[in-house]
Amino acid sequence: MTTAPAHRQPWRLGPRGQWWFDIALATALVTPAALTPLTDPGWTGLVISLAQLVPLYWRRHHPVAVFAVVALASAAQAALIDTPMWSQVAFPLAVYSVARYASAAWGLAAVGVGLCGAVVAAIRWVLGFGGNLEPDPVIAYVVTIATIVVTAWALGALARTRRAYVDALVERGERIEREAAQQVALAASDERARIAREMHDVVAHGLSTIVVQADGARYAARRDPAVAADTLATISATGREALQEMRRMLGLLRTGDSADLLPQPGLADLAGLVVGTSVDATLPDPATSVPDGIGLTAYRIVQEALTNVRKHAGPDVRVRVDVTVDDEVTVLVEDDGRGAAAPDDGHGLGLLGMRERVTAHGGDLEAGPRPGGGFRVRARLPR
């Protein structure tokens, strides 16, 4: 029996739908067989008809066993009844079920039994209808029955092959999705570990020096204030050097460029991002004071959101940028384009990078399609 993939396609029946379909099909075939006692086969024909049709209720879950019962009942019909009956429709359905839900070997065995049965049935029917056992009528019956059997087997084998192919594609897609997610997680983890190592190497030495110098200045201030002043100057220089090295290191991690870095951007630099006739911007006063980290985060959110608009929103897009500063800094960037956003790449960029930046400051980020089309990014950063 073929198992369903993890993500069922909408055009496939689920387990409950398959169950109801099998019941409806078997019931529709069994119902006309109730009239068999009124025909020439009589009550013997009714028993044989039920033996052929009733197993179809279980054809999906036990295809080989169902085919064996139907084949034996069909052999009993050939031995006891010399005319065709309605219930013989069960045989091609049983062949189809074996080819569809069992292995290819069982499918070939079923079609082989069906071809042999075609010869027996043809001879039995020719004699039953009072005809002479001549080649022409026998061949006609054999070809007709064999065509039905082979067609049922071919349809079942084709459906089984197609199902296996689709399941393989679905499994491959899920595997690729899992691998991509793992790669993103590993890349993000490697980036964080790298930043942690670099931060330790750059900052730890400077902070250790500052602590030692501060302890020395505290004791020296009692005896010689001049020594304390020199020590404080050393602390200041060491702190500036450590800060400069940290900024340079972070710049290398982000860009790989060893050139001297400009000061980190903030709210005052937003105007340079929104230059363009298709951007409707509402920005705070450049002189507005917010913590450097908050200003940098707001700048990066606007920068990344506008980058996503240029890459994915399509042509002739109108963009609205609204940055307000009150008890908190709110950032809104929305467009009326196709509504696609850049995927996370695991290196602090894209939506993942924006969300991590906002979360680090105790804020929250909302990103997704907006009503009426387009994409919206909204961030809240407590001051």
Automatic annotation (TrEMBL):
InterPro entries, per the entry: DUF7134, HATPase_C_sf, HATPase_dom, His_kinase_dom, Sensor_HK_TwoCompSys, Sig_transdc_His_kin-like_C, Sig_transdc_His_kin_sub3_dim/P
Keywords: 4Fe-4S, ATP-binding, Cytoplasm, Iron, Iron-sulfur, Kinase, Membrane, Metal-binding, Nucleotide-binding, Phosphoprotein, Transferase, Transmembrane, Transmembrane helix, Two-component regulatory system
Localization, UniProt: Cytoplasm
Biological role: Member of the two-component regulatory system NreB/NreC involved in the control of dissimilatory nitrate/nitrite reduction in response to oxygen. NreB functions as a direct oxygen sensor histidine kinase which is autophosphorylated, in the absence of oxygen, probably at the conserved histidine residue, and transfers its phosphate group probably to a conserved aspartate residue of NreC. NreB/NreC activates the expression of the nitrate (narGHJI) and nitrite (nir) reductase operons, as well as the putative nitrate transporter gene narT.
Domain (Histidine kinase): residue spans on this chain: 300-383
SMART domains reported in the protein's UniProt record: HATPase_c
A GO CC term attached to the entry: membrane
Main localization (coarse): cytoplasm
Enzyme Commission number(s) of this protein: 2.7.13.3
Membrane spanning residue stretches: 104-126, 138-159
Names of the cofactor(s): [4Fe-4S] cluster
Protein name as annotated: Oxygen sensor histidine kinase NreB
Source species: Nocardioides soli
Pfam families for the chain: DUF7134, HATPase_c, HisKA_3
